[in-house]
Structures are given as C-alpha cells and as structure tokens.
Design goal:
30% of the residues lie in helices and 27% in strands. A 6-stranded parallel beta sheet has the order 1-4-3-2-5-6, sandwiched between helices.
Length: 337
C-alpha cells in the first residue's frame, strides 16, 4: 500500500491514478469501516480505478481538545497496518491542523479533484470543510459521484450502530467479547518494548514496558494477553535456559499477565502516567527494542490502589495465578504446553 503524506504531496504533487476514495477517522477499523473499505475496493475494481483512503492525523477531536478527546482504539501505525490488510492501493494521511480545518468546502472538493478522485464512498453522516458546511450533495454538485454507505448495525444486539464509540465503551467495561464482535478480531495494541522504571523487578515480577503511542488507551485494568513479535520471531526462543515462558494463542507467542493503567499504588513515587506492562510467567529473556503485539483475551479486574508495596506484590502474585488458571480452562490451552 502506498502511504502519502498529504501536506508533502500538496507541496510537490505527483500524478496519482484515477481512484475511488473513502474518507474518515477509521479509528479501530471496525466492521463498519471494513464495509467502507470493501465497497471502495469493489467499486474501484468494477470501474478499473485505484482504491484510496484518506484519514486524519491527529483525529479532529484530538486537535481541538487533546486532553478530553476519546481514547484511541488504534494509533496511526496500527490503523495503517489494518487498512493495508484490506489491500487498499493508497492511504492518504491528512495533517489535521489549522490550515486544513479552515479549508472551505469548495477548496476541499478542489483538492479531491487534484488527487484524481473520480468516485467517493462516504458514510451517511460525513461532513467536511470549514464549519462542516460540505456534504455528499455538495460533492455531487461539484461533479464528483458519491455512493453513500449507510450505517452498519449489529444484528446480534438489537441492531445497534457499529461505532468506535461503542467499542470504546465495551473496552472501558472489560467487555472484550462484544468488542471482538464489533471489530471482527480480538482487540490488540502494538508497540516497542522500552526501558521503564523497573519497579517490577523489585517486586519479583519483571514486566515488558510497551509503548502505547497514544494520549491514553481505550481500556485499563488487569488482563490475560497473548503477545507476538511483529517480525515473526518465536518469543520462546529468547528465553534463557528453561525459562521460555507459557505459550499464548499461537505458536511463537507468549501468554502474559498485563496491566494497563496509571499504577495508583505507585503514583506518589513515580507520578501518574499511562503504562502498558506485561509480566510473562516462567520467562526470562531480553525483549528490549522489539515491537510486540499485545492481544487482549480476558479481563480480570480493574486497577487496585494497594496500600503498600508488599500488598502490591501479593496482589500481582494472585493475579498471575488467577490468569494462569483461566488459561488452563480455555480451549486453546489444550494444545499448548
């Protein structure tokens, strides 16, 4: 997939193929988004055009109010990878800044023509241009054919709308099953293993500190996770001696006990900061600098503000025991060592 920075392209335009374009935040790339991608792709194929997607970075609500904006389901890299998996030809990343937000509807439409857009696939609530004055009818009057894809609903839950907002709510409440249903896959976060404050070592539970690359995560608490390396490395081979870990969902993955949160028991010493930390039972190895994908399988409980480090140590120990017990009860564990 060709990834185009719109700001750079506008400064030095190159000829792009005639295309079908769909536009949106695509946060989470859920079933509704996937329907948009599939429609754009099928329409492009039928008209012998290229398929193209435009997303905004940061997302508009993050630009206007970063501290109160909804938590990200997917950061830019995750979103790019998920869109690429749908075999879209090009992804345009539009830098949402003051210049972009002040584009008139007319100038926005002119930009689409300059990008060689020949057809658009849009959601029924799509608005664009300064003060959101543009809509599908405006584009049609401008000479750009538009196909509206109506809201995808969830038949299993009283035809509720499939939306990023609803998925965030599910994740916030630990409802991973419904989130998976709306996403069409298990929810996951990908990031590099970074050096942290290494407090886990002092508690006898060392953790991999994985970069979130977002203002705040969409879920928090204690989870069972399955972790894979994005480069395909079998993580068990990185373990020392017999400490090769417990297998996760697939061969080469590791099962982990994960905390996503602000670590309230440690805020007086380390301050308040969102962290994603994974302890790998029965594993001792160096994961620093590796990019890992953390797939969330089971919500155990929310964060607890333990009164002391000793209480925190005991709480972590119990969480690991409970999560390993959960793993043993799952069907996937039957084929895992």
């Amino acid at each position: 997939m060709n990834v185009i920075d719109l700001s750079d392209w506008l400064k030095n335009p190159t000829l792009l193929p005639d295309s079908v374009l769909t536009i949106g935040n695509f946060d989470g790339v859920h079933l509704g988004h996937q329907a948009m991608l599939d429609k754009a792709k099928s329409l492009a194929k039928s008209q012998q055009l290229a398929s193209m997607v435009m997303i905004f970075e940061p997302q508009p609500r993050e630009f206007f109010s970063p501290q109160t904006a909804p938590a990200r389901l997917t950061n830019l890299a995750e979103k790019t990878q998920l869109i690429a998996e749908h075999r879209i030809d090009s992804l345009i990343v539009a830098n949402f800044d003051n210049d972009f937000r002040n584009l008139s509807a007319h100038d926005f439409a002119k930009m689409l023509v300059k990008l060689n857009v020949k057809h658009l696939v849009l959601g029924d609530d799509f608005r664009f241009g300064h003060d959101r004055t543009g809509d599908s009818e405006f584009l049609r009057a401008f000479g750009l054919p538009v196909q509206i894809l109506h809201t995808v609903t969830d038949h299993a839950h009283q035809d509720e709308r499939v939306s990023s907002t609803r998925i965030r709510d599910c994740l916030q409440h630990g409802d991973l099953a419904t989130a998976k249903h709306l996403l069409g896959r298990d929810y996951a976060i990908t990031g590099m293993v970074e050096h942290g404050d290494k407090i886990g070592r002092t508690l006898d539970f060392p953790t991999a500190n994985i970069a979130l690359n977002r203002i705040k995560p969409a879920l928090h608490g204690i989870f069972a996770v399955s972790v894979t390396a994005t480069d395909g490395t079998d993580l068990s081979t990185l373990g020392k001696n017999t400490q090769t870990g417990v297998q996760g969902l697939t061969k080469g993955s590791l099962f982990g006990a994960c905390n996503v949160g602000t670590r309230p028991a440690l805020k007086n010493k380390y301050g308040v900061e969102w962290r994603l930390e994974v302890n790998f039972p029965k594993f001792d190895g160096d994961l620093y600098g590796r990019e890992l994908t953390v797939t969330f399988l089971h919500f155990l409980h929310g964060e607890i503000n333990y009164p002391s480090l000793d209480a925190l140590r005991q709480g972590i120990a119990q969480d690991v025991v409970d999560l390993l017990d959960w793993r043993k009860q799952q069907a996937f564990a039957k084929s895992c060592p």
